[in-house]
Design goal:
The protein is α/β, with parallel strands linked by helices. It is 32% helix and 25% strand. Strands 1-6-5-2-3-4-7 form a seven-stranded mixed sheet. The radius of gyration is 15 Å and the shape is globular. It comes from Brassica carinata. InterPro entries: RNase_H-like_dom_plant, RNase_H-like_EbsB-rel, RNaseH_domain, RNaseH_sf.
């Protein structure tokens, strides 16, 4: 339904409207690295994590391609999990550029078109470009792939235990907004 960039004065994760869930998509790119990280975390309108996942990506020739593959994977997962009303958030400016101007990236058009096709299967959706702080949990999960060399893909209920404090801060909107 919409692609937007948030300009909220609050630089912290925000809860979705009550009828929707929020899927934050994380990307971790290593220039010329063999493996890049991808993740998503799904939270309800109370900020509670419902599910999360991570995977290692290989074979991407650019950051934009890797980030678009991450978004495609998250969109496919939300469809497979049968969610109908989703607010997607990603902190990749490359994803925003590609979705707003697909004709500028003909080499990636099959990937972009697939994402748009799958999005239109949802009853209600938005994709927002947000700051890294608003996307810090998903970004941390994606970075764990490349920093911790955690290449095993999985889907799990709830959120990762090692990010429990961060998830609690996001849910209560009491996180420190200091960089």
């Amino acid at each position: 339904m919409a692609l937007e960039s948030t300009n909220s004065s609050v630089d912290a994760w925000e809860k979705p409207p009550s009828e929707m869930v929020k899927c934050n998509v994380g990307m971790a790119w290593v220039d010329a690295g063999p493996v890049n990280g991808s993740s998503w975390i799904l939270r309800d309108d109370h900020g509670q994590p419902l599910q999360h996942s991570r995977q290692a990506l290989t074979g991407s020739s650019s950051k934009m391609e890797s980030d678009l593959k991450s978004l495609l994977w998250a969109v496919q997962a939300m469809g497979d999990l049968r969610y109908k009303k989703i607010l997607f958030e990603a902190s990749s400016i490359e994803v925003r550029q590609a979705l707003l101007n697909p004709l500028r990236f003909p080499e990636l058009s099959p990937l972009i078109l697939k994402i748009l096709e799958l999005l239109h299967r949802f009853e209600k959706w938005t994709i927002s470009h947000v700051s890294d702080l608003k996307n810090r949990v998903a970004k941390s999960i994606a970075e764990s792939v490349v920093v911790g060399i955690r290449t095993q893909s999985y889907v799990a209920s709830g959120g990762p235990r090692w990010l429990h404090q961060m998830l609690q801060e996001d849910a209560s909107n009491t996180c420190l907004l200091v960089r």
